[in-house]
Description:
40% helix, 171 residues, single chain, seven-stranded antiparallel β-sheet
Amino acid sequence: MTPDRMRKLARALDMVAEKDRQELARQYAIEQVRREAAAELYGICRRFVDELNALMSEVKLDLAPPAYEERNFHESGPNLFQINLNGRLIQFTFRPTDTPTSTDNYRIPYTLEGSIASFNQQMIEHDEIRDQRLFYCLDRNVKGWRYQEGTAGRQGVVDSDYIAALLERLT
Length: 171
């Protein structure tokens, strides 16, 4: 092998190492975004439950889990947050996409996907569980948790107003 060819090969292999470092950094960044996004959704739920509980005297909302930290995020499986008021449930279930980002089920790039189910005992008996799609979007103009209603095609931001509307439907 000629010295020139050896130098070219060495440069090419150095470039491979740099590409590998960049890919690992990108994967770590996506994992961090996912952990932060899960904590953000929990924070939205926690604030909603705490604010509403402070105003009620007869009943109290429960949030499961009762506490959440970024380290509790499940990278390889589903994550679940649940708001409960005497059998009236709102469940947020989500998991990482198979690739760092996707647009398979929503037009804006997302890295977490799942569903939001809201139901009570009567709805279960009549097979009327309401279910919407849930996405954590990464687009710079639309970053954050979004929902999409399949039948109506409506979509919007997951916030306290949205959770309140879900709970109002259950009462």
